[in-house]
Amino acid sequence: MVEEGMTIILDSGSTTLLIAEALARKSNITVITNSLPAAFTLSENKDLTLVVCGGTVRHKTHSMHGTIAERSLHGISADVMFVGADGIDATNGITTFNEGYSISGVMAAAAHKVIAVLDATKFNRRGFNQVLPMDKIDCVITDDSISKQDKAALAKTGVELMIGLKRSRLCVADRESKPEGKVRPAITAQCPHHFTHINHLIEY
């Protein structure tokens, strides 16, 4: 799914942070992101090119938004975009509970393929602000707890569905110690469940 030489756009979110952790093991790729935690993770690998969107920080998600962030994506042509979701349904696509969330649309317009990565609990959970309509999404990757009804509804949209991930509990540490004695915020995705086999997905 992700090969050497590719340019990847990575939206902010807890699930896309797990994608960032997998991408950080690869080399000779370019990753463009508006997520500060993802940028921190990816910056540890000198064998990839990291581009961070400028803009205004949204403190709740530690991500960059606004006109400056969106303008930084103008002229970009990426192979793949990975996007998470607060909610998704076959009628409204990806939605969020945040206001003024428009950068994902700019990211999607700059990518040849848009992949939504989310756990099955997000299906039929609908926020008040649309992030991406279904006709802008090429593929949805979710876990093996997706219902038959949600599979059927997604199939009618023509969007590709991949079910290759399992869910497991995630223990969240607030801080982690570094060998030299310094302390930094933990960069593990802070969500109630997380996907296992994310690295396998990236290698797919």
TrEMBL record:
Superkingdom, taxonomy of origin: Bacteria
GO biological process: proteolysis
Domain DeoR-like transcriptional repressor C-terminal sensor: 1-143
Pfam family, one: DeoRC
PROSITE patterns in the record: ASP_PROTEASE (PS00141)
Gene3D superfamilies per UniProt: 3.40.50.1360
Gene Ontology MF, one: aspartic-type endopeptidase activity
InterPro entries: Aspartic_peptidase_AS (IPR001969), Carb_Metab_HTH_regulators (IPR050313), DeoR-like_C (IPR014036), NagB/RpiA_transferase-like (IPR037171)
Protein's name in the database: Galactitol utilization operon repressor
Source organism (scientific name): Salmonella enterica I
